[in-house]
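Section: protein folds

Sequence with per-residue tokens
===
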Amino acid sequence: IIEKVKSGFNKSKEKDKEQEGKADNIKQGSRNEQEYEKSQVNEVKNKEVNKEEIRNNAPKTGSYNIKLSNGEEVKLTYNIVNNEKQYTEVLPKGINYDISPSKKNIVILENKTQNMILVDSNGNTKDITKKEYVSSKNDVFKKDNILKYKSNYVWCSSPKYLNEDNIVYVSQLPWFNKENQKYLWKYNISSNTHYHNLSQTGGELTGVDIKYGDNTPEGLEVIVDGVKNIIK
């Protein structure tokens, strides 16, 4: 009888331990589930925080839509950096333009009219084209008249910022009877003047093929018929 009682007692203890083990497993499972749910909530929160940080750190952008004198509409896009506008692009593709070193201004060359347009950081435009050429004999040659009778004549092309106050460009001026010869000109924004005696010796910088190289601390590299020049 005593053995039977002991056996029953032991079995009862084993059942209690088994029940306790099951209870512990249930508790552990509940804790694991709660921790998993918390981790999922934290993950969602972290993702939302990251998205907010990305939105806050993303550059603010904007654009101007302007109409050129030739009727063409262009879009000027910019970023806002330290509360200042910095131009990034002119659309549509194919527009001949250049952005100033500070990215605050743009020069645009109109198709067909060959007008050179300066745009400031507020989207204001100014026509900076040399509208006429006066020869040493005081003969006046107007741009529109020349282009009307010589449609292939290059009055102005390839505007390029030399620095914030100067823009260089390529033209066939000051000659009208040299079909292949081109000359480098400079426009000064402050004085609103155009001049073309830009060689290191003080004369004309001229050639059949004029290309721009790098804008270096020494000045802009201009390659004329394969020969590199530095323009300041």
